């Protein structure tokens, strides 16, 4: 198991050092800011949704390696996906993080890929908010695009 934990640590550090989709998007893309006061993490998610599809997503902000790498992996996982698929990924991730309240069965076809590297965070409850910050911010941004 130590080998797997090392691999997970590598994936998290890689996304922290070389974040994917870091930057900003101009309107009509929506943007929402999220804070995690427990740790001081700040994330702004920029989301461009067209015809029910996430055509582009970027993030900015600063904070601990868990918060920043989770945001980087999240943008990778949802870019180009339909809003419906994105919501399924959000649910699956939150379920892994033990913060999903919806108890209907999960779609087994939804794959988390690199995001599985964050499952070890569950052992440190105070860090779960670091990992889920960008995701909660994404949910707020998605809601804006549906208005
Ligand atoms: Zn944090």
What would your notes on this structure say?
There is one protein chain. The protein is of the alpha+beta class. The protein has one domain (2-145): Sufe protein. Chain: A. Helix content is 44%, strand content 18%. A 3-stranded antiparallel β-sheet has the order 1-2-3, covered by helices on one side. The longest helix has 21 residues, at 125-145. It is globular. The structure holds zinc ion.
Strand content: 15-25%
Looking at the overall shape, the CATH architecture is Alpha-Beta Complex
CATH class: Alpha Beta
Average predicted local confidence, pLDDT: 94
Query: Strands across the major sheet, in which order?
Result: 1-2-3
Cα gyration radius (Å): 14 Å
Tell me the overall shape: globular
How many domains is the backbone divided into? 1
- Sheet having the most strands: 3 strands, antiparallel
Brief overview, please?
The protein is of the alpha+beta class and 147 residues long. The protein has helices spanning 2-17, 65-78, 83-96, 125-145; strands at residues 30-36, 41-50, 53-62.
